Amino acid sequence: MSVEPIVERSPKVADEVKKTTCYMCACRCGINVHLRDGKVRYIEGNRDHPVNKGVLCAKGSAGIMQHYSPARLRSPLKRVGPRGSGQFEEISWEEALTTATGWLAPIRETDPKKLAFFTGRDQSQALTSWWAQQFGTPNFAAHGGFCSVNMAAGGIYTIGGAFWEFGSPDWDLTEMFVLFGVAEDHDSNPIKMGLGKLKNRGKRVVSVNPVQTGYAAISDDWYGVTPGTDGLLILSLIRELMLSGNIDVDYLRRYTNAPWLVIRNPGAADDGLFLRDDDGKPQILDRNSGKPVASNSRGAAAQLQGEVKLNNGAIAVPSFMLMAEAYLDDAYNPDVIAGKVGIPAARIRQLAADLAEAAFAKEIVINQPWTDWKGEHHETMIGRPVSMHAMRGISAHSNGFQTCRALHVLQLILGSVEVPGGFRFKPPYPKPAEAHPKPAGRPDQVTPGKPMAGAPLGYVLGPDDLIIGKDGAPQRIDKAYSWDAPMSAHGLMHMVISNAVAGDPYPVDVLFMYMANMAWNSSMNTRGVMDMLTAKDDETGEYKIPKIIYSDAYQSEMVAYADLILPDTTYLERHDAISLLDRPICEADGVADAIRWPVLPPDRDVRGFQSVLLDIGARLDLPGMVNEDGSAKYVDYGDYIVNHERKPGIGPLAGFRGENGKAEGRGSPNPAQLDAYIENGGFWHTEIPDAAKYYKMANMAYQDFAVEMGFFDSPQPYDFQIYSEVLQKFLLAAEGHGDVQPPEHLRARVKQCFTPLPSWYPPFEGSAVDEDEFPIHALTQRPMAMYHSWGSQNPWLRQIHGHNPMFLSQTLASKIGVGEGDWIWVTSHHGKIRVPVAVMEGVNEHTIWTWNAIGKRKGAWQLDADAPEVKKGFLLNHLIHELLPPKGDGMRWANSDPITGQAAWFDLRVKIEAAAADEPAEVAPQFDQIASPPGLSKPEAMLRYGLEWTKSATKQSKKGQ
Amino acid sequence: MTSLPEPSAIKLGLVIDLDICVGCQACVVNCKEWNTSGYGAPLSDSDAYGAKPSGAWLNRVHAFEAGTGADAKVVHFPKSCLHCEDAPCVTVCPTGASFKRSEDGIVLVNEDWCIGCGLCAWSCPYGAREMDPAEGVMKKCTLCVDRIYNENLPSEDQVPACVRTCPTNARHYGDLGDPNSEVSLLVAARGGVDLMPEQNTKPVNKYLPPRPRRAANDTPMSLLAMADEATPSGFWKWVDSTLEKLG
Amino acid sequence: MRPAWSIIFFTSISGLGFGLAAWVVLGFIDFVHPQQIFGVGGLVMLLIGAGLLSSTLHLGHPERAWRALSQWRSSWLSREGVLAVLAMLALAGWGWHVFAIGTPPLWANIASALLMAVTVYATSMIYASLKTVARWHHPLTPICYLMFAAAGGLLAILWLQAFWGQGQSDAFELAVLLALASAWGIKLVWWQIAGANGSGSTLASATGLAGLGEVRSIMPPHTSENYLQHEMGFVIARKHTSRLRLIALGLGGILPCLLVIMDGGSTMGIGLALLLHMAGVFVERWLFFAEAKHTVSIYYGHQH
Ligand SMILES: Nc1nc2c(c(=O)[nH]1)N[C@H]1C(S)=C(S)[C@@H](COP(=O)(O)OP(=O)(O)OC[C@H]3O[C@@H](n4cnc5c(=O)[nH]c(N)nc54)[C@H](O)[C@@H]3O)O[C@H]1N2
Ligand SMILES: Nc1nc2c(c(=O)[nH]1)N[C@H]1C(S)=C(S)[C@@H](COP(=O)(O)OP(=O)(O)OC[C@H]3O[C@@H](n4cnc5c(=O)[nH]c(N)nc54)[C@H](O)[C@@H]3O)O[C@H]1N2
Ligand code: SF4
Ligand code: SF4
Ligand code: SF4
Ligand code: SF4
Ligand code: SF4
Ligand SMILES: [Mo]
Questions:
Q1: Beta strand pairing call for B45-46 and A308-309
Q2: Is A424 exposed, middle or buried (CB count within 10 Å of its CB: 0-12, 13-18, 19+)?
Q3: Taking the domains of chain B in order of start, what are their residue ranges?
Q4: Which fold has domain B12-218?
Q5: Does pTM surpass 0.90?
Q6: May I ask the CATH class of domain C5-300?
Q7: Tell me: the pLDDT tens digits for A9-43?
Q8: What residues 825-864 of chain A have any CB closer than 8 A to a CB of chain C?
Q9: According to a count of CB atoms within 10 Å of the terminal CB, is the N or C end of chain C lower?
Q10: Chains with at least 3 CB pairs less than 8 angstroms from chain C
Q11: What is the CA angle A938-A939-A945, rounded to 5?
């Protein structure tokens, strides 16, 4: 026997480890970047980081390959060929910045609206929105409108925060966790960590999702709901829980507007509004006195049933009575809705029973005294250990806003929001709609050459806040905050190109975009969008969108459609602020923010976009971006992060403020702040005091803490809004009340959809097409190991998801006579695609699905023209239109939620048929190849990352192909 | 070292919890990332940006399914070397490159000796070995032998990369030779199983089966009915009496 | 399993070489001229050598092939290598003895022939010892290899006899026919029974998920083909299988037999028979791999 080889067990790993924040997706985990010889040796999760506590997902682990991607843009580019061809010439930064300024300055001086500035899944909306405001255009938004604004707005308007990034289940205490329509989400690692915790604690995980993969695969119960019907299902659960008395009456009475008195005065202008006193305080019926008193009266015992006679003969009743009236109805009987939602009645009752059992039989009591905002003292914190999370599965439908509201109401009747074991907010949430600014952009708020009177995005509280002209016409290019989408808190990015090209409501001059692949996977009707981007005015021969500026870091499909490219760095080469002013990384127990910083210098002529934006701002003399003498106020984004103050003492980062770097939340700028963050691992975190950890919306200790931290200038306690007066105001307008009323063609729709209590109506696309012709729902899901389009340039990730089949149940597959590996045509009212098939059973019987954004355009991302992403990967987007099928009224009806404008991706209806045997085994449609920009070179075929550090016997590629 | 050593007392290995794995592929990619600059030659990728990309990986996650319709159950299934006690991949190796460490049972390839004949991959029932496309030597899970003993890493990081990164904590690492180790106790408590026991390879790694899911046709638990009767009027009576109690 | 030409060539050609060598040392051919010893010896060495050389072609590191001689205690591949070297040495020694001293003692001849046989056996055991490939893991697998080596060797002797103008006895021709018939006969049986019951492993046992009911693969781990799928996921359609089996049998068995019977022993005729036989054996070896299913394929969606 030979001697056992000696293995080197302690090899050197790295020269140094730099701690920053991941950006392989928007989850923002902390990472330790191990560097060796000036190259990335290894990236791992930062154990101290509040978001990921050491773990790292597949995308994060593939960061090395993203950072060194051959598709990285290398220098600023000016278009030289026709738009869409991808022909560019390299230019200097000076020329690029002068060009951009030259295009933008005249617009600002004449009509700032002619700039549409839209950003993708970036994480600097605090900066970009401020920049838009300083420029003076209302036409700003990020991607939220096509992403999940229903979830975000539904949450804010109902409970003062959303699941999304603003809250999380109480993973350590919850007994039952219900996931509605989530494949992966922005809370990527935290959800996985949480699921692991629950499973290891033996707690119940329930998934409501037409598809059973990923998280749903490990659920203890899987409900394969029919897409678009969750609203019905949830209202049915509410009915069952109410009927059986499984609701938290005390919670409803103390923390929600269930006891608030609603005026019942049919036909009158105040019908359905809250009864308020002279101070505007909503009234409740006090049991002790039998009289209406202000809802925040100390010691009042709120009634949920009763009636108050009003002077004008009308009456007012607690909104809870309206709830009961609405939801005890037989229309929500499980037996009645079972067929529609695709779940047997017995299973619906079972889910209700499980919720009730977890909430009430497993009640948690924490001995933690606290004081509520009415001044009442509580010895304990009562927990209802049921938690939920939902995302685009319920939100990306035209009935999504009401469905998201319904889900929050379900949580509220169980008393499980902001309580131990339930769903908890992450600071600076909770924050009700009233505590948010209202959007600016009305004609009187937009002045050439001046900043806008307020930020372009915010929360409207009624028709008076709409951004419309005197004639009721939309003022924003995306028609956000118009009657088309009154509560569109995130704008409607998916309508910008379409509207601008249609000149509806008006054309724009410059489209400025950042980090959004709008010529491909983030658009509905992708081919149409490509045509729009290249459409020319017949008379002038000019492009209908005359100038397009775009910032990307990589050669995406969108690059070919821009006139000027501002190449960004990778996430390891720049400063970023993950700010409390934007999308926080806080956890329910603590406040936190973080930075990215250049852990490696760029090796190309690229610049961080935020620095470039500030540079352009300074060249345009935008207030706040220049000193008195006209010089640039900030050297770069890093300088801005440290020194910019939104209000005195409040800046992008809340940690290490003040002269000595010890202040938290508020404090003067600290020149050494970035170093302090770096020293601390790239983030800052502070615990919420124990007495402030739950009931934050009503907890004085938390409210004081929030003021101290600078979230608010004064305490902002509030009651959860089950009954939405905001919606009622829009409804009243549709009924003919008030000065601001919807146009005739929208009245009926507003009346149908803007119910003050959550309701369900069938998704629009299903109603607009012949359901017998298009009987099938088609969905996409995010693969956990891919981030939209930007993962495909990654040689590791593309081996995992290099193409995407369409998954069909065996029943559907047999019906059209196909099996694994065959090809089918999928047809919607709008388009037709040929795609490969895979078969699985864990899918709702009327539903087919595929992975999102795997298909790539030929020539993009430095991939081979015959890449599987091109030949066998496809986009469902070709079937989805940004407009509903024409109704014959000449109107352009957006395929969106009528309340928020959320793109209704998952309303898609299709039919399927087998492809003919002689058809090519290749997806259709195919598009022309786009040219590679100058400077990018074809990568080496054989990749051997790490060669210089390994003990490889063969140092050069042997079988290079 | 082609012959197997006497079974070691310490049997280091992984325990993978199929009840928790969501198929996120984190372990797969982190393993690649660690190991491409680690033990032996890089884990290379041929045609990396081309029409037929194909690389060497030490860990891959499958997706399986059983049952039909509402009873269907999807299971994500990570698979890497099981560090078998009776490792056929070791005994077939003609060069002695494949070996099982006598100290801790880790099965490794000595890449300086490996001729790339592929026989060990043929002999492994599980598909745990992959030939490196550039280097022409056999690659396999090393149980991160260059991490678990690595003094350049903090002690809490001296675990396999896949275990450290797994977001759901579905992967556990430890000594399965010690019946009282955490992993052994976990295996005992959850009925951990061997893969393909009929192949008699005596895998060290164990798999924890998914806990049974409630069948779709289970009768519902009765709601904890507190109302006199489940009617709207009964509901109001109940609300009243509840409020009464609350005062 | 993916058929690799180098391996197919190796097993069939070196099999023929060892078969021929065994019959030679057993004295089935007379050396009229001493040079003929070198002729035969050279031919055999060429066959064996070419086979062994080709077997290194599929190696990632052929330059280290010598290491493969080290693990004869446990590895059939190693044993095969060692035995092949020993067999070649024995043959060289035998040739030298015949040339320089005269016919070696019988025990030495038998021992040498046995060494050739054991070498072929070792080759076959590389495959037959793999439990992971049910079709190979069968007692008849080595018999097949040995029989083909024996039959091919006999046919080669017949051809040498024709080539050197030595008369052939009917009995010897009959022996050749018998050998060919039994080789293919056993192969026919092997085709029927070897691995017919699968490896005993199923997706249920491979995943430990038996409790959930029938398990199916719904997604491969990666969409891009990996080494395992390339190497071990090779599948050949059933209809091709039966056609190729017929071709193998026809080329390698029936046609050579007919030629031997009808031709009357011309160099050309027997030469053709030998070539056809080897072509048949190539096809048979190709099928040996192509038809074999590795347990790994279970994980990739193929049952059993
Ligand atoms: N069918 C279907 N379509 C969908 C969806 C769906 O579910 N189904 N989901 C929709 C949703 S929710 C979203 S959010 C969109 C997302 O779609 P997109 O917004 O298009 O998202 P990505 O493709 O991830 O990235 C956009 C661009 O950002 C670039 N980028 C990456 N990193 C950087 C960087 O550091 N700097 C700069 N400047 N650029 C960078 C990438 O190269 C890419 O071109 O897709 C939408 N489209
Ligand atoms: N790995 C990875 N992570 C990501 C992203 C990514 O691209 N990759 N993208 C990020 C972005 S931009 C976003 S917006 C989030 C989105 O996070 P998710 O909302 O989880 O995104 P989707 O993949 O669109 O998942 C939608 C899920 O809803 C289900 N569904 C569809 N229709 C219905 C329905 O009517 N009812 C119910 N109950 N379910 C339904 C689908 O089957 C799918 O599982 O993820 C973020 N995280
Ligand atoms: S979830 Fe993954 S990709 Fe997203 S930030 Fe965290 S580690 Fe990075
Ligand atoms: S990292 Fe964990 S959850 Fe993800 S695939 Fe691997 S074992 Fe499963
Ligand atoms: S799993 Fe395969 S490679 Fe690993 S020890 Fe067992 S037989 Fe060898
Ligand atoms: S490939 Fe290498 S490790 Fe495997 S059997 Fe051959 S020589 Fe041994
Ligand atoms: S133990 Fe190490 S080598 Fe093995 S699968 Fe895990 S990360 Fe890969
Ligand atoms: Mo999104």
A1: unpaired
A2: buried
A3: 12-218
A4: Alpha-Beta Plaits (3.30.70)
A5: yes
A6: mainly alpha
A7: 999 999 999 999 999 999 999 999 999 999 999 99
A8: 838-840, 842
A9: C
A10: A, B
A11: 175
